[in-house]
């Protein structure tokens, strides 16, 4: 009888502790970006001498568990065209992780991954290009210097989605977060 009582008490305690334990060990995604950090505004030169400036964001896992199949999605953009600000929210677009160009990646606890957002190409003319995995053919191409706003969402299989709004200025030659 005593053993049955202990089993029931253990099951009852387990039923109350399990949700708390799951939330304690769940991953928590955070979006990071800063003007003065070379991880997020990267200027490089290719073998032909053409300059590229990449605008990037970091996705950090601040939880105690590994975030599984993390994806970063652009849900809304406010673009600058020669006609003025132009919202683009007709599609949800995947952003690739830097170096691997994968759309989904695991992020271990206390670490981060870099996501490429856009780049400026300095060839014969300066051009801003967003680095979505697949860009719709009706996405505006005549992007002008100005302030851009992007709403993103970092999602994973085993944690809540994390929304963030990124605002940056493209001066026609370089980037700066606002």
Detailed description of the structure:
With 178 residues, the protein is mainly beta. It is 13% helix and 50% strand. It starts with a helix and ends with a strand.
Q: What amount of the residues lies in strands?
A: over 45%
Order of helices and strands: HEEEEEEEEEEEE
Alpha plus pi helix count: 1
What is the number of beta strands? 12
Entry keywords:
178 residues; mainly beta; 7-stranded antiparallel β-sheet; 5-stranded antiparallel β-sheet; 1 helix; 12 strands; 50% strand; elongated
In short:
The chain is mainly β. Helix content is 13%, strand content 50%.
Layout of SSEs?
Layout: H1 2-25, E1 29-32, E2 41-45, E3 51-61, E4 67-81, E5 84-88, E6 93-95, E7 105-107, E8 111-122, E9 126-130, E10 146-156, E11 159-170, E12 175-177
Antiparallel strand pairs: 1-3, 2-3, 3-8, 4-5, 4-6, 4-7, 4-10, 8-9, 10-11, 11-12
């Amino acid at each position: 009888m005593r053993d049955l009582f202990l089993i029931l008490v253990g099951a009852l305690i387990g039923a109350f502790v399990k949700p708390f334990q799951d939330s304690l060990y769940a991953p928590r995604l955070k979006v990071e970006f800063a003007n003065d950090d070379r991880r997020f505004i990267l200027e490089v030169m290719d073998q032909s001498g053409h300059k590229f400036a990449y605008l990037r964001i970091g996705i950090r896992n601040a939880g105690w568990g590994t975030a599984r199949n993390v994806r970063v999605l652009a849900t809304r953009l406010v673009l600058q065209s020669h006609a003025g600000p132009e919202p683009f929210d007709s599609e949800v677009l995947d952003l690739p992780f830097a170096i691997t160009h994968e759309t989904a990646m695991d992020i271990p606890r206390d670490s981060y991954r870099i996501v490429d957002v856009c780049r400026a190409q300095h060839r014969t003319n300066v051009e801003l290009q967003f680095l979505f995995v697949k860009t719709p053919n009706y996405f505006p191409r005549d992007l002008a210097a100005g302030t851009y706003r992007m709403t993103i969402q970092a999602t994973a299989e085993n944690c809540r989605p994390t929304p963030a709004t990124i605002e940056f200025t493209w001066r026609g030659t370089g980037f700066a977060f606002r």
